[in-house]
């Protein structure tokens, strides 16, 4: 497990709190739930993966660390019955993450999603099913930007517009990371001779957010 990846995952964990039923879907090495258990941020955790090899690895890592992690072979939340207070879905494509959420959304209290591609799919899904993005945080790892979104059931008072769906400025808690992402996107578009209207508009909204919530 590379150090940067641990940092990225730990970076998302302060959004978690101490939920009674917490499930990490797509656990692979189980770096996130094991870090949370080790820190005492959780008293128990379930880690699931759709493949056997990651489950074996997760159990082995838990054993080495002397931590009690309930590891299950499961497609999404199929292998976990009943209510789930918080589910984390990190390091997958947004389409897969949204599929996992959609299949079980009636029994999820909150979701932490870190898609490997784009947050837009996740924001669009949330708006479509009457969920909302409670907060977002961005981080950079090995030159790549990753967004982390906290989703809760219940529609936002103001329906997100196209700009919000694309860039998620409203709930952003890390304006510097998103600002750097927007600058990179503007540069990319301009180098291609394309208009950068939407990311420029998002930059303006971000500047307002920065003034409203200074660091
Ligand atoms: C790239 S790893 C990410 C591991 C870890 N969550 C992280 O962020 O570092 C993605 C993992 O998700 C698992 N996965 C993909 N689709 C899944 C699904 N529908 N249900 C459970 N696990 C899934 C894969 O087997 C793989 O181990």
Secondary-structure blueprint of this entry?
Layout: H1 3-13, E1 22-25, H2 31-39, E2 46-49, H3 52-65, E3 70-73, E4 84-92, H4 94-104, E5 108-115, H5 120-129, E6 131-141, E7 144-153, H6 162-167, H7 175-191, H8 197-212
Parallel strand pairs: 1-2, 1-4, 2-3, 4-5
Antiparallel strand pairs: 5-7, 6-7
Bound molecules: S-adenosylmethionine.
S-adenosylmethionine binds at residues 5, 9, 25-28, 31, 48-51, 54, 75-76, 90-92, 96, 100.
Helix content: 40-55%
Number of strands: 7
What is the radius of gyration computed over CA atoms, rounded to a whole number of angstroms?
18 Å
Strand content: 15-25%
Q: Work out the helix count.
A: 8
CATH topological fold name of the largest domain: Rossmann fold
The number of distinct structural domains comes to 2
Provide the succession of SSEs.
Answer: HEHEHEEHEHEEHHH
The chain-level structural class is: alpha/beta
User: What is the 3D shape?
Assistant: globular
CATH superfamily of the largest domain: Vaccinia Virus protein VP39
**Which molecules other than protein and nucleic acid are bound?**
S-adenosylmethionine
Average residue-wise pLDDT: 89
Sheet with most strands: 7 strands, mixed
Quickly give the CATH architecture of the largest domain: 3-Layer(aba) Sandwich
Q: In CATH, what is the class of the largest domain?
A: Alpha Beta
Low-confidence stretches: 1-6
Strand order of the largest sheet: 3-2-1-4-5-7-6
Measured distance between first and last alpha carbons = 31 Å
């Amino acid at each position: 497990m590379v150090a940067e990846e641990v940092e990225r995952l730990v970076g998302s964990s302060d959004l978690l709190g101490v939920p009674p039923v917490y499930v990490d879907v797509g656990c692979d090495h189980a770096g996130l739930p094991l870090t949370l258990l080790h820190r005492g941020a959780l008293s128990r955790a379930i880690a699931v993966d759709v493949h056997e090899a990651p489950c074996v690895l997760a159990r082995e890592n838990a054993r080495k660390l002397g931590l009690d992690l309930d590891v299950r072979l499961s497609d999404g939340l199929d292998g976990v019955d009943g209510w789930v207070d918080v589910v984390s879905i990190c390091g997958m494509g947004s389409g897969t993450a949204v599929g996992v959420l959609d299949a079980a959304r009636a029994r999820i209290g909150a979701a932490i999603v870190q898609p490997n591609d784009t947050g837009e799919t996740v924001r669009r899904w949330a708006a479509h099913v009457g969920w909302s993005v409670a907060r977002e945080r961005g981080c950079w790892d090995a030159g790549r930007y990753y967004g982390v979104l906290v989703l809760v059931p219940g529609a936002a008072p103001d329906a997100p517009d196209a700009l919000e769906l694309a860039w998620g400025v409203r709930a952003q808690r890390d304006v510097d990371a998103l600002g750097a992402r927007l600058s990179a996107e503007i540069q990319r578009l301009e180098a291609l001779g394309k208009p950068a209207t939407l990311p420029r508009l998002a930059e303006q909204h971000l500047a307002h957010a920065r003034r409203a919530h200074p660091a």
